[in-house]
């Protein structure tokens, strides 16, 4: 029982009936004893629900003018500075169809993807997600006032996205069911403002090469596939615009496979310039006792988010680097 309220120090009770009878007592509604008990246990009215929309990243009321030199986004100087940290360390709330989205093995939070979209785009800009899953990036784009198009090979994930949009009254973007290696060719050149890629699992060819014979070297075949996808993304992206790629390392057959440099390498081959890296730890990742108690086997709970920029061939420096406070 809490007794930190000074006003309760002199409380005296008059009713001698056991407390379990309060539920059927005809005097309960006006009972001073019951009111004092409720005050003691702090059983106040249910707090208002968390306002999801106004607390979404960068959706709070804007009380500043964007620096006229800022051609990249619409964030404040403080938000800009915070984003430049190389680690996403905050935990994200579970909402907007979380129970449905979590059926996907690699689901992400709209808060996480929303920060990337908000920093690298302006309102009405077009976001492309070639591996859209349950459409989390499209949800974030809608909440931020951006346009978006996504491709997803698994039809059930597409159905989940449209169900979430109906349930939460989120403006629907265009999520197309099909293989991105084919659909990417339909995106007009120089039409996209930001590309967000969360690639499929390299060790599961059904996610990126369905109806094909299993490759003898799946990782090599996967990066051949990804190079083709990145070439298409490079064509679709406007000059000097950005692309973010989620990468995650693997542990297979007793060996740690460091995939991040391979993504950087094929992106460079496709014509992108690596601009930086952000680390996101998925704190919700369930820890498993791999190797215990005989050998060290890591629980890979982090992602590297590689940031790339499309530049004109032969261009030596980023012209935007010159615009600094």
Would you give an account of this structure?
With 325 residues, the protein is an alpha/beta fold. The chain folds into 2 domains: 6-40, no CATH class; 77-322, Rossmann fold (3-Layer(aba) Sandwich). Helix content is 27%, strand content 18%. The protein contains 9 helices and 10 strands. The strands form 2 sheets. Strands 1-9-10-6-5-2-3-4 form an 8-stranded mixed β-sheet. A two-stranded antiparallel ribbon has the order 7-8. Strand 3, helix 6 and strand 4 form a beta-alpha-beta unit. It is globular. 30% of the residues are buried. Residues 5-9 have low confidence and may be disordered.
CATH class category label of the largest domain = Alpha Beta
- Give the amount of beta strand, in percent: 15-25%
Structural class: alpha/beta
With helices defined by DSSP (H or I, 4 residues minimum), what is the helix count? 9
CATH topology term of the largest domain: Rossmann fold
How are the strands of the biggest sheet laid out side by side? 1-9-10-6-5-2-3-4
Overall mean pLDDT stands at 85
**Biggest sheet record:** 8 strands, mixed
Residue share in helices?
A: 25-40%
Poorly predicted runs of 5 or more residues: 5-9
What order do the SSEs take from the amino end to the carboxyl end, as H and E?
A: HHEHHEHEHEHEHEEEHEE
Distance between the terminal alpha carbons, to the nearest Å?
56 Å
How would the global form be characterised?
globular
């Amino acid at each position: 029982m809490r007794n930190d309220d000074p006003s309760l120090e002199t409380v005296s009770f008059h009713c001698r009936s056991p407390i379990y009878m309060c539920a059927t007592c005809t005097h309960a509604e006006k009972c001073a004893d019951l009111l004092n008990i409720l005050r003691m246990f702090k059983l106040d009215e249910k707090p208002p629900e968390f306002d999801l929309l106004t607390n979404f990243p960068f959706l709070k009321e804007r009380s500043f003018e964007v620096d006229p030199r800022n051609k990249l986004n619409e964030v404040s100087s403080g938000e800009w500075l915070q984003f430049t940290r190389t680690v996403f360390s905050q935990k994200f709330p579970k909402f907007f169809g979380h129970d449905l989205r979590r059926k996907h093995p690699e689901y992400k939070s709209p808060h996480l993807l929303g920060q990337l979209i908000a920093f690298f785009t302006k309102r009405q800009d077009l976001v492309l997600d070639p591996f859209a899953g349950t459409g989390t990036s499209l949800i974030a784009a809608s909440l931020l006032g951006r346009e978006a198009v996504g491709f997803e090979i698994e039809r059930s994930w597409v159905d989940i996205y449209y169900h979430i949009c109906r349930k939460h009254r989120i403006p629907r973007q265009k999520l197309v069911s099909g293989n991105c290696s084919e659909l990417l060719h339909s995106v007009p050149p120089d039409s996209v403002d930001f590309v967000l890629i969360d690639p499929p699992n390299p060790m599961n060819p059904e996610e990126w090469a369905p109806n094909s014979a299993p490759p003898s070297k799946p990782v090599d075949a996967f990066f051949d596939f990804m190079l083709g996808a990145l070439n298409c993304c490079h064509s679709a992206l406007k000059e000097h615009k950005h692309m973010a790629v989620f990468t995650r390392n693997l542990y297979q057959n007793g060996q740690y496979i460091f995939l991040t440099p391979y993504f950087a390498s094929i992106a460079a081959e496709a014509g992108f310039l690596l601009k930086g890296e952000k680390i996101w730890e998925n704190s919700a990742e369930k820890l498993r006792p791999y190797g215990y108690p005989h050998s060290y086997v890591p629980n890979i709970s982090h992602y590297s988010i590689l940031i790339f920029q499309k530049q004109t061939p032969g261009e030596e420096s980023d012209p935007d680097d010159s615009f600094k406070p």
